[in-house]
Amino acid sequence: MKNNVISERVVFMSLSKIEKNCPICGKDNNCKHGQGSCWCENVKVSKRVLDMVPEDKKGKACICRDCIEKYN
């Protein structure tokens, strides 16, 4: 599955306002964007998981650790 890994970060650095809820499950994503280092900085996310994000949330919300671990 290494070929499906397309993102090393879940945080979208160009955003001025980060949504605090995971776009997959709706729970708090614990995003620390702009507040120092974030838990997701070294996380690899598969294309399969990224494809689960609804179109209207792509590039606007970080996926939570639970969803990454569950679906990655």
Structure description:
The chain is of the alpha+beta class. The chain has one domain (2-71). It has 2 helices and 2 strands, in the order E-E-H-H. The longest helix is centred in the C-terminal third of the chain and has 7 residues, at 65-71. The termini are close together. Residues 1-16 have low confidence and may be disordered.
Question: Care to give the gist of this entry?
Answer:
The chain is α+β, with helices and mostly antiparallel strands and 72 residues long.
Q: Whole-number average pLDDT? A: 79
Count of all domains: 1
Could you name the ranges where pLDDT drops below 50 across 5 or more consecutive residues? 1-16
Strand-residue proportion: 5-15%
Count all strands and give the number. Answer: 2
The CA-CA distance between the termini, in Å, is 10 Å
The topology string of helices and strands comes to: EEHH
Largest sheet: 2 strands, antiparallel
Summarize the amount of helix as a percent range. Answer: 10-25%
Task: Classify the secondary structure makeup into a structural class.
Answer: alpha+beta
Shape: globular
